[in-house]
Amino acid sequence: MSATNKEVVQAIINFLKRSSKDGSVSEDYVESVDMAIDCIADAFEVDKEVESAVKAKFGNKTLNELLGASSASSQQVPIHIPKEDEEIKQKAEAFKLEGNKAMSARDFETAVAKYTSAIELIPTNSVYLSNRAAAYSSLGKHESAIADAQKSVDSDPSYVKAYSRLGLAKYVTGDIKGSVEAYKKGLDLEGENASETMKKGYNTAKQKLSEQIANQLQSTNAKGGEAEESTAKAANESTGPGSGGLPDLSSLLGGAGGAGGLAGLMNNPQLMQAAQSLMQNPSALQGLMSDPSIRQMAEKFGLGGGSAPKADGEASADGEDSGSGPNLNDLMNNPMLQNLASQFMGGDKKP
After folding, report:
1. pTM confidence score
2. Where is the SGTA homodimerisation domain positioned along the sequence (predicted)?
3. Are 39 and 76 within 8 A, CB to CB?
């Protein structure tokens, strides 16, 4: 049971009274000690003559004995480690040492087994996890190495070796950015005394990351250039010797007007482009009709090419003799050509 303030004060008064009587205090200062006793007793409102109750409280021990016992007790309190926990730690350390020996002998499978036994006893030990990560890397099991190294740094973020092993495993698996980050954390922890292994790993990963970024940029630029070249080539191929940017219809029609029938014309994408251009600019049809192949196509589908001159001998609306080519008005108003153009232009849309 803890003592009250008054009990502590009473113990101090008893100590002072005893000191003034046993010669601990010079006779010249006895009166001063007595005055101090009176002042303390008045301040804490205790009876300076009562000693028995205090002695019973503290087991008849003097203030010196009480303080001495307290000091000795604080110095001799051992760190309590359960016997079972200590035995587990010793077993785990023994497995770790066996794993280290197996690593030195390049028996990596045995090393993994020994480190695993140690981890089963103490699952959060960062050293055991980091060591097993190294063994996994030596076996080429880099994903397992990453998992163990990550657990190690999570368990103890200040354990430097784990960052080195994490950086190596990530580098080998192609996670170059993650490798750089792991090595960087390790370097930050090592500070000015950074190890050569950590510095070399960081520099290697950083250089590889720079190369990857450069290659990605080069690949992106190359694809962009190929796309532009393909677009330009397509544009050049779509325009021929005809006017108005129309394709060379003589090649589309087989040179002699043979288009494989109406279905073949409707399925020809370049002819569709030509039809769209004509519908947007009907005046371009005048120049187009000078192409013999177009005239032959018109004759084939009965669009007026080769028809007899008008009875009154007048010129056609486009200024050409009607006997030398198709009539433009008839051609533009021909239902078959309008239907053909309408399908090229998107089905039911009207021009």
Report:
1. 0.43
2. 4-67
3. no
